[in-house]
């Protein structure tokens, strides 16, 4: 029943989207990004600018499949800043992809935690309820993960955090009180972050 | 701020950085432990019968297993400070080593200890002093590992903190093993575990606080 509900709200991504979801930084630019980062560590600003621009595009795709649309830009910028602060920890002898993917995953979890702390937080204007295509793409990985939650938690997260309904609207659709909806969002997102942290490679 | 503006800001006036080196961090940790042990022994804290006890199986077991555990835990902790590192397998290895060391302790007990009463063997008054000494001796190592952790990029900070606590606790216990006059393995297992456990719990609670990549 939960899968039915999820597929009604967010149909499975198309083949193209699935192909994109398997994309990783190591496959797109295995050594080049590592070389650019090594140059950036030596103070080469041009190489760093190019690396950040390419990473930004990859991160946007990464977070688009994992977070509600309104959270993607924040997550991308948080990750870019984390990469900047921790750039000295990259070892050029190893591939750059896993290094970046680990930081991106950490920021994904941070962003979900921040959503859990504000279950009724206002969403930005770019989360359009009617933008069905965006919501399909935006949550392809999230949809799979939500299946691990209790149905009431998954429904509350989908309606409020993904579809952009208010807590009151979601409560009348689900048939629960607004405080129960908030609690389900908080507990669901907390469980989701724990699940992601325990899973070594979420795709 | 747009992504482009952020990228322009981050890449303008970029300064070179000194790359993190696992070997340098390991050497720092080794130097600190060595210095602590030297200072401790120079203060005259070494057990008085060390000349006779040095080749006894119970002292060799205690010092050897603690050295092995300390090296493993320090390696796991330093390795875990890399973003792509997996900490759980290392912690499992350290736990297995600790269990093996405890089991090995059964075979090195000095003769006559098995007949003594349990409370007599544990000697809680001295045990509390031993556990407290281990906690105090582990503080410098914990501080160093905490600083290294904050400067690095652990993506599993709670597990890294656990590994750092275990490393600090076993280093403290290793230094203390040279002065502890008790030979009973049961005493060592109970009170050293309590000391190491307290340090690990404190590190797990303190080190990840306010940590953000």
Q: Total number of helical segments of chain B?
A: 9
The overall pLDDT of chain A, averaged over residues, is: 78
Number of helices of chain A: 12
Summing up helix and strand content along with how strands pair, one would put the structural category of chain B as: mainly alpha
Shape of chain B: elongated
The separation of the N and C termini of chain A measures 23 Å
Oligomeric state of the chains in view: heterodimer
What is the 3D form of chain A?
elongated
Computed Rg of chain B: 20 Å
Number of structurally distinct domains of chain B: 1
Strand % of chain A is under 5%
N-end to C-end Cα span of chain B: 20 Å
Low-confidence segments of chain A: 5-23, 122-137
Contiguous uncertain segments of 5+ residues of chain B: none
Structure description:
The complex is a heterodimer of chains A (about 200) and B (about 210). Chain A has about 200 residues and is mainly α. Chain A contains twelve helices and no strands. Chain A has one domain. In chain A, helix 6 crosses helix 7, helix 10 runs antiparallel to helix 11 and helix 10 packs across helix 12. About 15% of the residues of chain A have low confidence. By secondary structure, chain B is mainly alpha-helical. Chain B has one domain. The longest helix of chain B has 28 residues. The relative contact order of chain B is 0.16. The interface between A and B is medium-sized, with 40 and 28 residues. Chain A: Keywords: DNA-binding, Sigma factor, Transcription, Transcription regulation. Chain A: This is Sigma-70 family RNA polymerase sigma factor. Chain A: Belongs to the sigma-70 factor family. ECF subfamily.
């Amino acid at each position: 029943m939960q899968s039915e509900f999820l597929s009604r709200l967010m149909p499975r991504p198309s083949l193209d989207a699935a192909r994109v979801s398997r994309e990783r930084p190591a496959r797109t630019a295995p050594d080049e990004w590592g070389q650019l980062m090594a140059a950036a560590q030596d103070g080469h600003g041009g190489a760093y600018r190019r690396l950040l621009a390419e990473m930004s595009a990859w991160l946007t795709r990464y977070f688009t499949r994992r977070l509600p649309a309104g959270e993607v830009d924040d997550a991308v910028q948080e990750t870019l800043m984390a990469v900047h602060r921790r750039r000295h920890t990259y070892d050029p002898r190893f591939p750059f992809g896993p290094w970046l993917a680990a930081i991106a995953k950490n920021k994904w979890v941070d962003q979900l935690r921040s959503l859990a702390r504000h279950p009724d937080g206002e969403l930005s204007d770019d989360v359009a309820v009617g933008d069905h295509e965006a919501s399909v793409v935006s949550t392809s990985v999230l949809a799979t993960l939500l299946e691990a939650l209790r149905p009431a938690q998954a429904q509350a997260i989908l309606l409020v955090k993904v579809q952009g309904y208010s807590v009151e609207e979601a409560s009348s659709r689900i048939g629960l009180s607004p405080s129960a909806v908030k609690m389900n969002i908080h507990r669901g997102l907390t469980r989701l972050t724990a699940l992601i942290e325990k899973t070594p490679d979420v795709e | 701020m747009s992504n482009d503006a952020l990228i322009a800001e981050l890449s303008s006036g970029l300064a070179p950085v000194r790359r993190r080196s696992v070997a340098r961090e390991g050497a720092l940790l080794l130097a600190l432990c060595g210095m602590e042990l030297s200072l401790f022994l120079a203060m005259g804290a070494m057990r008085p019968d060390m000349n006779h006890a040095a080749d006894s199986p119970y002292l060799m077991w205690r010092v050897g297993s603690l050295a092995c555990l300390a090296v493993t835990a320090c390696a796991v902790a330093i390795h875990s400070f890399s973003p792509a590192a997996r900490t759980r397998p290392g912690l499992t290895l350290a736990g297995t080593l600790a269990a093996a060391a405890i089991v090995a302790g059964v075979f090195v007990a000095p003769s006559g200890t098995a007949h003594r009463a349990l409370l007599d063997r544990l000697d809680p008054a001295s045990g509390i002093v031993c556990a407290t000494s281990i906690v105090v001796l582990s503080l410098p190592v914990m501080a160093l590992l905490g600083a290294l952790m904050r400067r690095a990029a652990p993506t599993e900070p709670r597990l890294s903190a656990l590994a750092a606590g275990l490393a600090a606790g076993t280093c403290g216990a290793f230094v203390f093993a040279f002065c502890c006059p008790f030979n009973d393995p049961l005493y060592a297992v109970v009170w050293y575990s309590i000391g190491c456990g307290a340090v690990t719990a404190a590190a797990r609670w303190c080190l990840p606080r306010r940590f953000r990549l």
